[in-house]
């Protein structure tokens, strides 16, 4: 159960239309439509509530068109649920703090986990570490 609860109207006032559609209505942004994120050290946080979800160290280029990670940050509020929309069975990932839809996870990622957390770019924000340097 989400810890942060807001009405749809509150979310609509806080989020841009695309972020609302993806995170609150379980949408998906078009592949390759999100601009790249910096490659400096930092955290990827939930676009809705700011919870720390993924680290730069777990991000990799999968070629799928969405930001990909091989694992959430340790102790991140990333939860999974079964998704049977569009005639498929997939594993949805969402923010446990606010219920935001983040994307899906697939068992075709790199070591060390073998998982690919395929995350909508509008569902996350990049927050650089204080000591980060641009690559």
Automatic annotation (TrEMBL):
Class in the EC hierarchy, top level: oxidoreductase
Keywords linked to the UniProt accession: Oxidoreductase
A Pfam family matched in the record: SelR
Reactions catalysed, as given in the entry: L-methionyl-[protein] + [thioredoxin]-disulfide + H2O = L-methionyl-(R)-S-oxide-[protein] + [thioredoxin]-dithiol
Keyword Iron appears in the UniProt entry: no
Range of residues in the leader sequence: none
Tree of life domain: Bacteria
UniProt-listed Enzyme Commission number(s): 1.8.4.12
Keyword Thylakoid: no
Domain MsrB: 8-129
Family as reported in the entry's similarity comment: Belongs to the MsrB Met sulfoxide reductase family.
Classification via PANTHER family: METHIONINE SULFOXIDE REDUCTASE, METHIONINE-R-SULFOXIDE REDUCTASE B1
Protein known as: peptide-methionine (R)-S-oxide reductase
Source species of the chain: Celeribacter arenosi
């Amino acid at each position: 159960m989400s810890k942060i609860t807001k009405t749809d109207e509150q979310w609509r006032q806080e989020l841009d239309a695309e972020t609302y559609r993806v995170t609150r209505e379980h949408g998906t942004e078009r592949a390759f439509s999100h601009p790249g994120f910096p490659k400096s050290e930092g955290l990827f946080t939930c676009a809705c509530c700011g919870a720390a979800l993924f680290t730069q160290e777990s991000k990799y280029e999968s070629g799928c068109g969405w930001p990909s990670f091989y694992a959430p940050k340790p102790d991140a509020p990333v939860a999974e649920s079964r998704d049977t929309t569009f005639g498929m069975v997939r594993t949805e990932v969402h923010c446990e703090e606010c219920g935001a839809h983040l994307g899906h996870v697939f068992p075709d990622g790199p070591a060390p986990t073998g998982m690919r957390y395929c995350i909508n770019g509008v569902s996350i924000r990049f927050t650089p570490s204080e000591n980060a340097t641009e690559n």
